[in-house]
Design a protein that fits this description.
CATH architecture of the domain at 26-112: Beta Barrel
CATH topology of the domain at 26-112: OB fold (Dihydrolipoamide Acetyltransferase, E2P)
Shape: elongated
Helix content: 10-25%
Radius of gyration: 20 Å
Structural class: alpha+beta
Largest sheet: 6 strands, antiparallel
Distance between the termini: 26 Å
Order of helices and strands: HEEEEEEH
Length: 128
């Protein structure tokens, strides 16, 4: 029976984790795509107590790459999807074509892959 040291196993596991986290993952559903986009500007439209954000985006991936689109985003204060959208930030969006061929988008989440990569590198440096 071969005995492998704990440090060796730990290094292999960390290396595997880092390699997995270095790859971007794209998901696609039928004609819908889930892709990365960059926020170009945010305007706030207020109706009574409701603050609707009108967000201008540039699609960075997929079949609509390079297109600029506008979507409405309604932040809900106490839910997990209350994102601070600012110019230059990247988001994950869902895209779809309507019956007229117009691209409809909705913001799904913030794009956090760069932050996860940085944390992984820091983790690797500290523990290996």
């Amino acid at each position: 029976m071969i005995m492998v040291g704990y440090d060796y196993v730990k290094k292999i596991c960390l290396l595997f984790l880092i390699i997995v986290l270095m790859f971007d993952v794209n998901y696609a559903e039928d004609s819908n795509e889930i892709v990365k986009a960059q926020v170009l500007n945010v305007n706030i439209k207020q109706q009574g107590d409701i603050k609707m954000k009108i967000v201008r985006l540039r699609i960075l991936e997929g079949k609509f790459s390079g297109q600029e689109v506008t979507c409405e985003y309604l932040p809900i204060r106490y839910l997990g999807n209350n994102y601070e959208l600012e110019k230059g930030k990247k988001v994950i969006i869902g895209t779809d074509l309507d019956a007229n061929g117009k691209v409809n988008v909705s913001i799904i989440d913030m794009y956090r892959v760069e932050y996860i990569k940085m944390l992984s590198i820091i983790f690797l440096i500290c523990f290996v």
